[in-house]
Amino acid sequence: MTVVLGFEGSANKIGVGIIRDGEVLSNPRRTYITPPGQGFLPSDTARHHRAVILTVLKEALEQAGLKPADIDCVAYTKGPGMGAPLVTVALVARTVAQLWGKPLLGVNHCIGHIEMGRLITNANNPTVLYVSGGNTQVIAYSERRYRIFGETIDIAVGNCLDRFARVIKISNDPSPGYNIEQMAKKGSQYVELPYTVKGMDVSFSGILSYIEEAAHKMLSSGQCTAEDLCFSLQETLFSMLVEITERAMAHCGSQEVLIVGGVGCNLRLQEMMGVMCKERGAKLFATDERFCIDNGAMIAQAGWEMFRSGQVTELEDSWITQRYRTDEVEVTWRD
């Protein structure tokens, strides 16, 4: 049996997970939460991670009932992500691997999400919609790579939602996206917003600029409520994502969709994607917040796949990178 320990800390979540042959043994995490109206800065986020990472590691081992000797490999997020938090986590992973005498593995964050989604849902060969605070991509596997069929050309969908939450001073606890989702359920009036799909790609910065400017005017004049704006923003953004996902499915002849990443927990996005899948006779796969949101187990799972196919990262190659494309990784563990 192969047991892999995974460290994740590319953004405001710090997680340590342990996987043994497809079984999640433990997956504790902590979130750095800032006051309403504020985002999280790399240096502050790294400070938060430094303060709690060893506690989370201890929790992961205790929950799994394992000792360092039982671990076969230590995996960590190599990128993409925020520089300072990534460095913090890589440093701990490197140190732990050397202290325990274990091989090290640098994992692509996006591939961690995909492999975790495949494990939990048992999706065979899905078209993947990866949506989070830092990434928005439509991906499909072909010839030992996860190929990007479409993506955002500016900001990620989660970043668009988070920044709108700041404009109307929504709480960041547990996350701005979750709070927008709850407010949107109470919205009834649809406010028309720019809809920007360019071929297979999407653009969210124009919608954000438009709604940022319009929000204060419309709210102060009583034209609509904050709930109406949350509802309208979600409907517009998610329609764009469903459109490009359907186009990728048609191109690949795919009958499966897998939604991964933090925004993938959104039940309205899952509902809209489900309608499209039903019309095409396709199946939708999604996970809940335990595995959608950044976590250590997803890095452990991707690390498990990589380690079993013979990959390891030498110490001198164990750096991090803020830019690390999904299609840069050779997928040696799939046919």
TrEMBL record:
Domain of life the protein comes from: Eukaryota
Gene3D superfamilies: 3.30.420.40
Domain (Gcp-like) ranges: 29-300
E.C. numbers: 2.3.1.234
Residues of the signal peptide: none
PROSITE patterns reported for this sequence: GLYCOPROTEASE (PS01016)
GO annotation, cellular component aspect: cytoplasm; EKC/KEOPS complex; nucleus
Main location group: cytoplasm
GO biological process, any: tRNA threonylcarbamoyladenosine modification
Family of this protein: Belongs to the KAE1 / TsaD family.
Entry protein name: N(6)-L-threonylcarbamoyladenine synthase
Species this protein is from: Sphaeramia orbicularis
Higher taxonomy: Eukaryota, Metazoa, Chordata, Craniata, Vertebrata
